[in-house]
Amino acid sequence: MPVTIQTGLPAEETLQQENIFYMNKDRAASQDIRPLQVVILNLMPQKTVTETQFIRLLGNTPLQVEVTFLSTASYQPKNTKVSYLKSFYQHFDDIKEQKFDALIVTGSPVEKLHFEEVQYWDELTGIFDWAEKNVYSSLFVCWGAQAALYHYYKIRKHPLQKKLTGVFNHTVVSPTETLVRGFDDTFLAPHSRHTTVYGRDVQQVGSLKILSTSEEAGVYLVASKDERQVFITGHAEYDALTLDGEYKRDLKAGLMPEKPTNYYPKDNEGRMPPVSWRSHANLLFSNWLNYYVYQKTPYALEDLPLQSSKRPMVMPS
User: Does the active-site annotation cover 280?
Assistant: First the structure.
């Protein structure tokens, strides 16, 4: 939360130069507070695991958040009972007349398919289009990020020669951006995917900005310049044993997977992997909720901006 200072205090200039978040008393007096309304479209197979991962990150802030979970109506998840979904999830038709402060779209294990081959693609793009007018800020994760970049900006995903899995070092390339405020110059984050997007394609879109990259994992963090869209190509939300579970699942399936990079101590899969990305994951979500949502979303959700951002109709190579 910001520090409130007297309007005109000499320290204000220094605080601006150092990218420290503060608020003068005039602005503070005009603020009303209410719970943030966040809708999460959970496309991951293990619903309860993913729910816990995102709630953990959203809950590690001083802000009050109310979460609504969505599942797809056009595809019935195989790993979740219908009774569970009926108890804790809604479909898009149930909430499409509502407005939300924020939307999160998770990853999904469908990245080897072309986007249009995904069974719920039409439903998903309908949610993407709805979000532009009914959600203030949207955050897209892994395949969800690739899908959103493709739908909104026609940025293609590309297959990797082998699965990118492990914990990789990342560099902050835009340190003055509020989304990475407080980040170390370099930090760790998990990835688990078979496809990627090229940084050069993102750079061709004038309304997007790259905030963080990795020499091994490529583009990691992208945001629209109006700060209403955030794209994360990795899995900041992952628990200590998520990559371990995926690796052992693939081993059991006879897929001969490689061990996740920089994950197991001394590359020994029998040892407990340490969590080396938790602090930056918490900071990323805290910054997003604070600077991109709480500080900008209207107090009355019916006053949400209705205009859609202009999107280029080009197809990067």
Answer: no
Given 51, 123, 142, 177, which residue is catalytic? 142
- Among the listed residues 231, 229, 223, 204, the one whose alpha carbon sits nearest the alpha carbon of residue 315: 204
Per the annotation, the verdict on 142 as an active-site residue is yes
Which tokens is 220 given?
A: 């990691």
200: CATH: 3.40.50.880
Crossing angle of helices 47-58 and 278-287, rounded to 10° = 70
H or E stretch at 150: helix 143-153
pLDDT by 10s per residue, the chain, length 317: 455 556 665 666 766 776 666 666 676 666 667 788 999 999 999 998 999 999 989 988 888 888 999 999 999 888 889 998 998 999 999 999 999 999 999 999 999 999 999 999 999 999 999 999 999 999 999 999 999 999 999 999 999 999 999 999 999 999 999 999 999 999 999 999 999 999 999 999 999 999 999 999 999 999 999 999 999 999 999 999 999 999 999 999 999 999 999 999 999 999 999 999 999 999 999 999 999 999 998 888 888 865 544 455 445 44
Total domains, the chain? 2
**Residue 237 appears among annotated catalytic residues:** yes
Is the Cβ–Cβ distance between 4 and 23 less than 8 Å? yes
pTM comes to 0.89
Same domain, residue pair 183 and 50: yes
Which residue segment(s) compose the domain that 117 sits in? 32-160+171-239+279-303
In a domain, 64, yes or no: yes
Residue 141, helix vs strand vs coil: strand
